[in-house]
Amino acid sequence: MIKSINELDQRIRITQVVEGTDEAGGATSTSPFNEIWAKVENLGGGMAIDGYQRRFNYSYRITVRHNDKTHEGDLITILSTNTQLEVKQVTTQEIARQLYLEMGCEARKFVVNQF
């Protein structure tokens, strides 16, 4: 949990995912929304086998000043490391009479097994 606005020390880019349909039956596009300051916390990760691939899951908690435009399913890029995350959960926190969004995010990396 954030205690001071000074903890928002990393730049992130939030990208909204817009799903729509076209003549071929479907399309998904992305739209960059905003670059803002955030507190990024790596909560750990794990590994799972998915078919013939190993999947590494990394969990993050990202805290930003409150906005009404960030939703589950949006994409976040941590600009300093170029790490891409998907927003899985969004909650509002009030700390010292300031509203913040706390987002549970997940990054996935696939590694193809060599047999």
Briefly summarize what is shown:
This protein is about 0% helix and about 70% strand. It has strands at about 10-20, 25-50, 55-65, 75-80, 85-95, 100-110. It is globular.
Describe the fold and architecture:
With 115 residues, the chain is mainly beta. It has strands at residues 10-20, 27-50, 53-65, 75-78, 83-95, 98-112. Strands 1-2-3-6-5-4 form a 6-stranded antiparallel beta barrel. It starts with 9 loop residues before the first strand and ends with a strand. Residues 110-115 have low confidence and may be disordered.
What attributes does this structure have?
mainly beta, 6-stranded antiparallel beta barrel, 6 strands
Shape: globular
Low-confidence stretches: 110-115
What distance lies between the first and last C-alpha atoms, to the nearest angstrom? 44 Å
How many beta-strand elements?
A: 6
Helical content (DSSP H or I, runs of 4+): under 10%
Strands of the widest sheet, in order across it, are: 1-2-3-6-5-4
Structural class of the secondary structure composition?
A: mainly beta
Distinct helical segment count: 0
